[in-house]
Design a protein that fits this description.
homodimer, alpha+beta, 6-stranded antiparallel β-sheet
Amino acid sequence: MRGLHLTADLFDCRDPDGLMTAGAPLVALCEQLARGAGLSVVGRYFHAFPPGAHGTVGWTGVLLLAESHLAIHTWPEQSAVTLDVFVCNVGRDNTAPAHRLLDALVGHFAPKRVRRQQLVRGIDNADA
Amino acid sequence: MRGLHLTADLFDCRDPDGLMTAGAPLVALCEQLARGAGLSVVGRYFHAFPPGAHGTVGWTGVLLLAESHLAIHTWPEQSAVTLDVFVCNVGRDNTAPAHRLLDALVGHFAPKRVRRQQLVRGIDNADA
């Protein structure tokens, strides 16, 4: 089992479509982009946090994929979003779909700053 | 927003309790360990994959936490498990609870080899 885990932490999001505080539109967008990237959605769970001091509602959610998962947490009071795309490469290399999904999501939030990181997951170099 | 993302990829799991192919007991264990580590579960979604060539059923699942999430994918045919614990440190430092949860889960699968990695998430060093 080998996999690729991409993360993106978004700051100063302009969020032109108001996705950070949206429920159904956010879920629909995640699913649409995942499928558009060629990944298979097998489940989803999204949870709204109670309104904060500014009255905004943040969301935390996940799409379970046949290839692993997409996780998203929105922080509207900080104009921040965290994204995770984890794909395992069983039967095919899902590197390109993972990048495609993450890039598309980042674009929808229109952040001014992005911190991207990645981990190679799996058996190579496993510790004894 | 600052956070810590811990991953552990487990290989040659002895899996003494048969958790890799369990449904409800796996969910219950994740919830029990998350709560025991002092984290707050706000949702869960687990999905079983169809039986593979060896007749075993793998699981993919997530606990949504007030602090972020726990994700687990089991690969019984490869005796492998991947674990993610992502916590954000809003209001308090969740570093110790995250390690406690991950360590406890790793112990239950009794792997012979573990690959651990971690990412500091959030605003420090954000790219322009």
